[in-house]
Amino acid sequence: MNNIIEVKNLTKSYGDITAINDINFSVEEGKIYGLLGRNGAGKTTIMNMITAQLFPTSGEIKVFGESPYENHSVLSQICFIKESQKYPDTFRIIDVLDLCSSFFKNWDQEYAYSLIEDFRLPIKRRIKKLSRGMLSSVGIVVGLASRAPLTIFDEPYLGLDAVARTMFYDRLLEDFGMYPRTVILSTHLIDEVSKLLEHVLVINEGKLIINEEADAIRGRAFSVVGPSEKVDSFTVGKEILKRESIGSLVSTTVMEELNLKTRIQAEELGLEITPVSMQQLIIHLTDGKSHRKAVINK
């Protein structure tokens, strides 16, 4: 596949503070990516540089093979839905749709109106009078109906209930199947979106710590629970992410693929094993307490 984005030795500093520290990654055409990490990790800074809203301190960004800065041919192929998307106060939802129809060359007005019905949006209400959830829904409508070759959602679900979020995921997958493009999702709701993601990028304190296919991450870690002596014996030589006491028991999270041999070994010791979800794994790797600091970068 072609690479839509190429990032090389990218750094962004603000005085003595380094927000992004010498990262490298690429984004392939026609895949759904997760850009994940804690608040303040640098995710939004990266997205702002990709979309030419911030200049890097050093390093290089290529989008569709070119620098995105002051480059209309590149920027016209990007739809970036921000967490706090701003619109003119006088605009109604219908005005936003009309503007988008002239801005995005792949815009589907009929699809946009069908999404408006799905999310039950009052199309003639002014943007400034919308609830947080309604404003998020407008961003989702714009992002999906734009069908931009590169579509980026930065926490697009604020204020949405579980039903509305599920509707977004379903519509995204349906439309992505019919009109493939490159999608980047930045969110804290990792477990909810994990099944959508094909590739995962995790940023922690400005550094890229995971750059890997989502399928390879699933099942990468597990937790083992049981008496302290047995758990410690079982985990000798293994890479431990976390260890905590639960009454008379110990729970240890191990960075290792869970296979049949491991399961049998645990059963023989009377230990309980449970897989660690993608969200739990990322939390362990970014909580500042993990024993593991190495980068997962393939």
Task: Describe this structure in a few short sentences.
The protein is built from 11 helices and 14 strands. It has helices spanning 43-50, 72-75, 93-103, 109-118, 132-146, 162-178, 190-193, 214-217, 228-234, 260-268, 278-286, and strands spanning 3-14, 17-28, 32-36, 58-63, 78-81, 150-154, 182-186, 199-204, 207-213, 221-227, 240-246, 249-255, 272-275, 296-297.
List keywords for this structure.
298 residues; alpha/beta; Rossmann fold; Alpha-Beta Plaits; seven-stranded mixed beta sheet; four-stranded antiparallel beta sheet; 11 helices; globular
- The CATH C-level name of the largest domain is Alpha Beta
Strands of the largest sheet, in order across it? Answer: 5-6-7-3-8-9-14
Question: Can you summarize the main beta sheet?
Answer: 7 strands, mixed
- The CATH level-2 architecture of the largest domain is identified as 3-Layer(aba) Sandwich
Number of domains: 2
Order of helices and strands: EEEHEHEHHHEHEHEEHEHEEHEHE
CATH superfamily of the largest domain: P-loop containing nucleotide triphosphate hydrolases
- Counting copies of identical and different chains, the oligomeric state is single chain
Classify the secondary structure makeup into a structural class.
alpha/beta
**Average residue-wise pLDDT:** 91
Helical stretch count? 11
Q: How is the CATH topology of the largest domain named?
A: Rossmann fold
Radius of gyration: 22 Å
Number of strands: 14
- Would you identify the regions where 5 or more consecutive residues have pLDDT less than 50? 290-295
Instruction: Determine the N-to-C terminus distance.
Output: 16 Å
Q: What is the share of helical residues?
A: 25-40%
- How much strand? 25-35%
Q: Which word captures the global form?
A: globular
